[in-house]
Amino acid sequence: MKNKKGKKNKPQKTPKTFDEPLDLKNAPHTFVIHRGLSCGYLVSLSRDFRKIMEPFTAINLQEKKTNKIKDFVSLSGIFHVSHMCIFTRSAKSLSMKISRMPQGPTLSFRVHSFILAKDVLSSLKKQFVEESSFQHAPLVILNNFTDEGNHTKLMAQTFQNMFPPLNITTIKLSSIKRCVLFSYNPATKLVEMRHFAITVVPTGVNRAIKKIAMKKIPDMNKFEDISDFVLKSQMLSESEFEDEESNVTLSQALKKGNVEAGQSGIRLRELGPRITFELYKIEADLMTGEVLYHNEIIKSVDEVLKMRKRRADKKILKDKRKKVQDENKSKKDKLKDEHKMKTGNKQFTVTESDRKLLKDAEDAIDDIPEDDTEYYKEEIGEEPEKELFENAIKSGGRKRPHIPKFKTKSFKKPRTEPKDNNPGSRKDRGKIGSKGNNFKNRRGSNKRK
């Protein structure tokens, strides 16, 4: 189908929608944001933490100062977000909060020290960064979370629920490329978080053959033959020695010389960041609720009961006020609708007086003569001159013709030039000896005479 301009309308393409698998929807997703005073290292720390939580996080989440926590909570249901991590910097300290969406609980940590990922990589002799390792969720390792306190169990459960669970029967070993370590120290009550990359290398093999099996190009400059390279492999340097504790038997075949039911060694390479923090508060709700645990403030049973009663009274009063507000709003809406109905009926009803006025106006319009000459005769009593309405009769009336919007035709009369007896071209009018110039000279000579 063509439009008014004659161009063919292109059919609109409907966007393709892809349904995510059920296991991806049910997997825990995380928002990582920062609040408080602006600081460069705070932004870098939040980005490094997002790298740890990949791929189930918004790596390019753009946040503004005007955004509130309610904005992220409202989006959590759309994007299947289950946890939110908030780094907050104040004038005194740096804190980290981990909240379960959308109704809590909220764990508040005080950050004692941290090292960014770029600083960790720069301190290593051999840096290891593989982007494909961030396509799968990391393995969670918890150490020393065996304290009898309920706050310690809740803390360990929160760390474990932030990452998707691993099914031992269906998981592929090639997808386990990273691990996150949470180590708890009962004496200092500090939790240390470390982030590592996992690599698997074959063991029980000559070092030279191991390099070839792992598809590493060896330096053959000092050897005349490949046999010299294999026989003199003790001359090669190896930074990591083979330990029996780090050797495992693989249940699946992997790449680079790691065969099924064979011995392979596990190597850990740190990726960063390093964060050391301490739990100091647990709240029942999403950042505003009853304090279940506090590291510094310990209250008695009577104080806890009084606080619960005070909180319950506040909630009852809040619900009562909200109910009154809803009732008042419904009354106002009802009155407004009634007022609209009353005023609206008056506007659209036609009374007898209105009909009479409309009829008189139509009769008055019918009595007006359409011919200008007849109107002139009735009013003045004389016949008009022919030249008075001659142009109007030729053009069909004095009214301007209707010009549609899509037409740009001009109905003005073209400008006419005086006819000359001996016309010359416009180019030759300014030249000496041309017909146009002679015509002007003749007109000038007649005036002088």
TrEMBL record:
Residues 1-20, 316-349, 361-449 are annotated as: Disordered. Residues 363-373 have a biased composition (Acidic residues). One of its GO terms (molecular function) is rRNA binding. One of its GO terms (biological process) is rRNA processing. Residues 28-288 form the Brix domain. Residues 324-341, 414-431 have a biased composition (Basic and acidic residues). This is Brix domain-containing protein. It comes from the Eukaryota. SMART domains: Brix (SM00879). One of its GO terms (cellular component) is preribosome, large subunit precursor. Residues 1-13, 396-413, 440-449 have a biased composition (Basic residues).
